[in-house]
Specification:
The protein has eleven helices and eleven strands. By secondary structure, the chain is α/β, with parallel strands linked by helices.
Length: about 350
């Protein structure tokens, strides 16, 4: 594994550079428990936890916090797979089973937020790998991260497929009293068979929708990122209808569809999976994605139109782009209401 290019220590044969952490700061662990069978954790002490998003990115935010690298959700389409190659780790199985844990993330974030150079910009989480993946149940990094953001009244948003976010419900409510908080849950489809094959390490779609329902019941507006919509496997009109209907029933404040995109690293892994499970679709995918990582504009527009029409039919309302809205304090005799649906598009 290539840790040397990530060292923060000054070696005798070269000066310190701007890298992330040192080889002697890495502790590798495995745990003899069923939920972590076959998974290796590399505990590191990061040098920085606030990451600036490259200017060329399509992301609608400038700063992220990612306490983990790699993800046990094992989604075959995950665009973040390429990041594992920077450590000479495999972007396939290695991405799913070799998890880098930034164990000092909460303390480091607290220090960085207190710096006079930090001006309270919005911080997005869950935009690379899920901050509420299975490892979070053991390492418990997010309570400290949320507390640091709350104490500085720093706006933030979270995108997750994990049900573990409900553990931190009180922290989310406390944060929403002092700053802007946005929460989105990713549910691209409700087809159980499709879920088991493309997202094998995630909670079932219905469990994720239960998260949406619980958050909204506690006064925290929660949108759904309907992603990915998978061509030829999850994009039939009745599949889209079933998913939007379930999202509406869960009380989501908005729904934003996103067609599957296949960036380098993810593309190779997904196409290998496709060839094994649906070989008859390989040529169709090669044609559909012939021009790059993203589906053609006509396809994206078609999916967006269909989902927005269904959302209107089921009473969710149109998706509105922009930053997450501050969650209001609940009134003693009256439910908090908003001016309309909100959505933070994170991917």
């Amino acid at each position: 594994m290539r840790w040397d290019n990530l060292t923060v220590e000054t070696r005798h044969d070269r000066p310190a550079d701007a890298a992330l952490f040192g080889a002697d700061a890495v502790t590798t662990r495995t745990f003899d428990t069923p939920e972590f069978a076959g998974i290796t954790f590399h505990e590191i002490r990061a040098r920085s936890i606030l990451n600036r998003v490259p200017g060329a990115s399509r992301m609608p935010f400038e700063w992220t916090v990612n306490p983990y690298r790699g993800c046990t959700h094992a989604c075959v389409y995950c665009f973040a797979r390429k990041t594992h190659s920077y450590l000479d780790l495999d972007t396939g199985t290695g991405f799913d089973t070799q998890i880098v844990v930034k164990v000092n993330a909460p303390d480091l974030l607290r220090r960085q937020l207190a710096s006079p150079r930090w001006h309270g910009e919005h911080v997005a989480m869950g935009t690379n790998v899920d901050c509420y993946q299975r490892a979070e149940g053991r390492y418990r990094l997010m309570p400290g991260i949320l507390s640091a953001l709350r104490d500085r009244a720093n706006p933030f948003s979270i995108l997750t497929k994990g049900t573990l976010i409900l553990r931190d419900l009180d922290l989310l409510r406390q944060s929403a009293e002092v700053t802007d908080v946005g929460v989105s849950v990713s549910v691209g489809f409700t087809d159980t068979e499709l879920w088991r094959t493309v997202e094998p390490g995630t909670p079932a779609p219905q469990r994720r929708l239960d998260v949406v329902r619980t958050l909204t019941d506690h006064g925290i507006d929660c949108g759904v990122l309907m992603a990915p919509v998978i061509p030829f496997l999850g994009d039939e009109p009745e599949q889209l209808r079933a998913t939007v209907r379930a999202i509406a029933a869960a009380g989501a404040t908005s729904v934003t569809p996103l067609a599957l995109h296949l960036r380098p690293g993810a593309r190779e892994w997904f196409m290998a999976w496709l060839g094994q499970h649906h070989p008859y679709l390989v040529r169709r995918y090669e044609r559909l994605y012939a021009d790059g990582a993203y589906a053609p504009k006509w396809y994206q527009r078609r999916i967006t139109r269909q989902v927005h029409e269904l959302a209107e039919e089921y009473g969710i309302g149109p998706t509105r782009a922009g930053m997450p809205r501050r969650v209001p304090r609940p009134e003693p005799e009256e439910e908090a209401t908003g001016s309309g649906p909100t959505q933070l598009s994170l991917i």
